[in-house]
């Protein structure tokens, strides 16, 4: 096996999100979020699970920082809970919420772990949802004000900011299919949410630039590497349509290319045009410093006589518990594609990981073989993309520890650290040992 050495200065991290790990949903004047509301609707979340306690990170963050330090983690991506800072989304700021994140930042920096902060990871304050949430243009300026508060308070310690996590997910699954909060099924709401989310991103970047804050800012999205199910020309065209309705819909405006014409036409023909006002596209295209890439798998595409012109072909690779194909080649392949598509931007892999539900054996050892094998494959592919000239500078493993997996509740385990939900004990898995070795050596055998 060859040793794959990553570039000098490459950063290795882990990622989490506020609602998925913090718990303490009613402490220190935190406001109610759309996920607090959604989890209490019967049938919305597997087993009726909630994030009320989650991993209790709010009380155990020092233990979790020590755990990261023991693994050699260099950078930690996590999200602020908007409703801890602004319980009603805007208006009066909550000093107790700010103070919690002060303590977390200081603990991380004491261990030389660089914070990478996501401003929004799906937990919109319910008070803003009551006004329409992402379907209401007012949320844009509320987000910009919240972002400024975060920049002002934490900008002396944070040098890497992410505006939004996966707008494709919280807009589509929250507003069109309804399987995530706020649980809407309305194509018009979906159209408005897309544009307002991207506009909010642009306004936050503007605020960052205007304030002269140090560091860098970007956005991260959920991505899938699309592959044709066969060699037919019409299948190749279907793949491009899939990219229009997924990757290009959210990346194109950020990189100044606008919305794909096929998507604009799709919404207009249904009487729900994207609510673009003069100057909006320029705001959305305010220059960023990096692109965050979240990727877990690939999808096979075939043509279809439907409203979008494509559909998913049956999978051909083994399936993981989330229903994804085990496709480690997808990470390097997507990075090459997106790098070429948008002029070789600086890229951080802000999420990549594996759902592996391996439980402890009789000796308490968690040998999550599938995760280890796929991690090796993902990183080998990423190394190849870097060798081909893609400017990738950091990799964040999703996730530090098993946590609340949204509509799946606690039934899916993505952590390199096992969470015992009865005791809340953290138990590093074999994949954590493997990852620590990769970090120590800045590379791996593959």
Task: Describe, in plain words, how this protein is organized in 3D.
This protein has 446 residues and is an alpha/beta fold. It has a single domain (3-441), classed as Glycosidases (TIM Barrel, Alpha-Beta Barrel). The protein is 40% helix and 17% strand. The chain has 15 helices and 13 strands. The chain has helices at 18-21, 34-38, 57-71, 82-85, 95-110, 126-129, 138-154, 167-175, 187-211, 233-254, 261-269, 280-284, 329-341, 369-387, 430-441, and strands at 3-5, 11-15, 75-79, 114-120, 160-165, 216-228, 290-303, 310-312, 347-352, 392-398, 417-419, 426-428, 443-445. The strands form three sheets. An eight-stranded parallel barrel has the order 2-3-4-5-6-7-9-10, surrounded by six helices. It has a two-stranded antiparallel sheet with strand order 1-13. Helix 14 links the parallel strand 9 and strand 10 (392-398). Helix 3 packs parallel to helix 5 (95-110), helix 7 runs parallel beside helix 9 and helix 8 runs antiparallel to helix 9. The protein starts with a strand and ends with a strand. The mean pLDDT is 98.
């Amino acid at each position: 096996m060859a040793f794959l050495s990553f570039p000098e200065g490459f950063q290795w991290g882990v990622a989490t999100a506020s609602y998925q790990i913090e718990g303490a949903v009613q402490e220190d004047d935190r406001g109610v979020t759309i996920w607090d509301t959604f989890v209490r609707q019967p049938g919305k979340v597997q087993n009726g699970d909630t994030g009320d306690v989650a991993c209790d990170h709010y009380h155990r963050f020092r233990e979790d920082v020590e755990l990261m330090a023991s693994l050699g983690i260099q950078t930690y991506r996590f999200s602020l809970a908007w409703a801890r800072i602004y319980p009603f989304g805007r208006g009066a700021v909550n000093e107790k919420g700010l103070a919690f994140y002060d303590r977390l930042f200081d603990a991380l920096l004491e261990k030389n772990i660089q914070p990478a902060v996501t401003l929004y990871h799906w937990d919109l304050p319910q008070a803003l949802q009551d006004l329409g949430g992402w379907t209401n243009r007012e949320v844009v300026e509320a987000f910009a004000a919240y972002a400024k508060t975060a920049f002002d308070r934490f900008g002396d310690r944070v040098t890497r900011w992410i505006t939004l996590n996966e707008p494709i997910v919280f807009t589509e699954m929250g507003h069109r299919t309804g399987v995530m909060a706020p649980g809407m099924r309305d194509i018009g709401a979906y159209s408005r949410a897309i544009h307002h989310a991207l506009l909010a991103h642009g306004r936050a970047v503007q605020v960052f630039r205007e304030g002269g804050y140090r560091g860098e800012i970007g956005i991260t999205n959920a991505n899938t590497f699309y592959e044709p199910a066969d060699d037919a020309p019409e299948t190749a065209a279907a793949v491009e349509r899939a990219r229009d309705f997924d990757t290009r819909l959210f990346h194109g405006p950020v990189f100044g290319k606008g919305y794909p014409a096929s998507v604009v036409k799709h919404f207009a023909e249904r009487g729900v045009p994207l609510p673009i006002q003069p100057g909006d596209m320029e705001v959305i295209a305010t220059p960023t410093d990096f692109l965050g890439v979240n990727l877990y798998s690939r999808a096979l595409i075939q043509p279809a006589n439907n409203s979008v012109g494509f559909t998913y072909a049956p999978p051909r690779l083994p399936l993981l518990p989330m229903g994804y194909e085990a496709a480690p080649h997808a990470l390097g392949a997507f990075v090459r594609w997106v790098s070429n598509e948008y002029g070789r931007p600086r890229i951080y892999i802000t999420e990549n990981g594996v759902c592996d539900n391996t439980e402890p054996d009789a000796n308490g050892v968690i040998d999550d073989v599938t995760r280890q094998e796929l991690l090796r494959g993902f990183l080998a592919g990423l190394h190849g993309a870097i060798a081909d000239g893609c400017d990738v500078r950091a990799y964040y493993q999703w996730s530090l520890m098993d946590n609340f997996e949204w509509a799946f509740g606690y039934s899916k385990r993505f952590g390199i650290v096992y969470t015992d939900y009865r005791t809340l004990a953290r138990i590093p898995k074999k994949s954590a040992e493997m990852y620590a070795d990769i970090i120590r050596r800045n590379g791996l055998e593959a």
